[in-house]
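Second attempt. The first submission of Bifunctional diguanylate cyclase/phosphodiesterase had a stray character pasted in from the spreadsheet, which I only caught after the job came back as garbage. Lesson logged: always re-copy from the clean sequence file. Corrected sequence (386 aa) follows.
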Amino acid sequence: TLDLDEVRHINSAFGPQAGDAVMVDVAEQLRRLLPDEGLVGRLGGDQYVIALPLAGDATAAPLAERILIALNAVRVGGRDMRVTGSLGVALYPAHGDSTAQLVVHAETATRHAKLAGRNTHAQFAEWMSVDAEQDQRLLEDLHKAIGTAQLTLHYQPRVRADSDRVSGAEALIRWRHPVHGPVPSERVIRLAEQNGMMDVIGLWVLDEACRQIRCWHDAGHADWQVSDNLSGLQLDSPRLVEDVRQVLQRNELEPSRLVLEVSENAVTRDADAAVGMLRAIAALGVGISIDDFGTGFSSLLQLRRLPATEIKIDRAFVVALEDSDEDVVVVSAIVALGHALNMEVVAKGIETSGQRTYAERLGCDHLQGHQLGRPVSAESFMRLYG
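This time the job returned cleanly.
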């Protein structure tokens, strides 16, 4: 089964007619790729089911790769449409002896392809079914959890390197399930991204973070900032800029007190669109932070285009500062680059006093990590740092 990743956003940006045209063009691409005995059909929404015989020990991987590459050639009305897909494979008889069972297992593999980062393929394995059943139950519960006390934000402090004063916090989602207890935040985000909930979850986090920073400002901490992580899917949403504007107005918050973090890899998914979206957000007065800096494929080229106010050095470089001369050189270069572009530089993942000392000596402006403080509830944050 093939699940297109971007059609919902194409519908939002260009209208449902464009989305329908993409679906038709993809179907034609699939028919051209398949052998004569292959079949392709619409499974529903933006999903297709593909059936074809495999000879001998042949695998589906080469065809899966060709299908994903072909999606990049989709054009509608003379416009190149950036379309990616997640593709799951189930084989007869190894993965089922009926059409219905094969389709179910192929869809399960498709969900795992999405988990692997989208624009890829996966072949079904038995362990996937257990995870899929658990995820489905958790997804149903996550819908119910929004707006209840189950979902909260915890805040990890960020301190100024030159004074040890708290300069703000990063907001991190927490879900305490009534039966299973704490659900890892990575799993919450994965469920939301895979099932079309990221806009809803993202808006809730943004609103709650702004509400909290408003409370802290009223308590005398007008210099604190709160940073919120944006996923690549949120960057694709045409409503994002207006959502940010409305949340700021609703909470009567000075825009500069909010920082939105976006990873390099999220930007490189569709660089032109992401840059345009981030520039519109920056025009509101909101800070833009490039997270995990140093891990993207085109760091320097992207950085000069982005309206960033700060960069956060990836923890992979920070953790080895005490042992690796190469990482010391890398961090020193990132700090120099950031300062040359009038950006603040944050070293995250500080877990030892030695790492902290190195980061301070190398000129980082802000520090974040367990050595400085773990994520805590808003009440605990105020008690510890207020």
